Amino acid sequence: MSDVPPSEVRRTAVMTVLTVIAGAVDAVSFLTLGKVFCALATGNVLFLSFGLAGEGDVPVARPAAAVGAFVAGCVIGVPALTSLAARGRAWFVAGLAGEGLLLVASGAVALGRYGLAKAVDHTDYVVIGGVALAMGLRASTALRMHVPGMPTLLSQTAMAELVDDLLDRPRTASGAPSRRTLARARWAATVCGIFVGGVLGTWLLVPLGPGRALIVIGAAVLVCAAASHAAGVRREDAGARG
User: Fold this and answer.
1) In angstroms, what CA-CA distances link 4 with 1, 178, 232?
2) What is the pLDDT of residues 66-99, one digit of tens each?
3) Based on the number of CB atoms within 10 Å of its own CB, is 5 exposed (0-12), middle (13-18) or buried (19 or more)?
4) Does the keyword Transmembrane helix apply (predicted)?
5) 8-233 is classed in which CATH architecture?
6) 88 three-class SS
7) Rounded to the nearest 10 degrees, what angle do helices 6-32 and 125-145 cross at?
């Protein structure tokens, strides 16, 4: 990928790490917080629809709280990141820092309330809300970064794009071979990142429990924010996005 700018490679690497983290977050939330997704909002929308339809013994409150907190994170993130970008501030780093702090705080709440328990034995809306709020903020951050094929919270489209390209259907956006390779790498990283994150998140739960696992995941986001700041990962035309 000799003609791909180093900045594109750095952005791809950061978004790959964030995709892995999203998978880890959902492993923790689904397996220990009452079978609710805090990152992949599509799952909660479906759970909510099942619950409202009154079938499958699916609760309404948990997915509704997760969806509401996720939307709230987006509502907070969009104007905050837009304002920072308009003033030339490091909006991407700020978005990641906010996400990391929310995850650490949610983990601290879970740790304080449940200690080293392997799962929360009842619906804890504070923990669910905090984690989903963090992931709503992440959605806004990833959207503004706008790395094609890497939303960090969704893999279906990337999977379809990768299969479509590998089958060699004509594409107008692929361009030079190195650009096409970068596009394939991004799609593959999105699909594999969610999977790898789910595995890592599950492994974290065994020795740590949900509280400490969330703290570790939040700390990883903060490290990613610091590394992004040091590497100068940013979107040059982000200030133009409204």
Assistant:
1) 5, 7, 17
2) 999 999 999 999 999 999 999 988 999 999 999 9
3) exposed
4) yes
5) Up-down Bundle (1.20)
6) coil
7) 160
Q: What's the alpha-carbon Rg for the chain, to the nearest Å?
A: 18
- On the 0-12 / 13-18 / 19+ scale of CB atoms within 10 A, 103 is buried
CB-neighbour burial class of residue 11 (10 A; exposed 0-12, middle 13-18, buried 19+) = buried
Segments making up each domain of the chain, as ranges: 8-233
- Token pair, residue 143, equals 């959207």
CB atoms within 10 A of CB 13: 16
d(CA 57, CA 40): 21
Kindly tell me the burial class for residue 193, based on how many C-beta atoms sit within 10 Å of its own C-beta (0-12, 13-18, 19 or more).
buried
pTM: 0.86
149 close to 190: Cβ distance less than 8 angstroms: yes
CB 6 within 8 A of CB 183: no
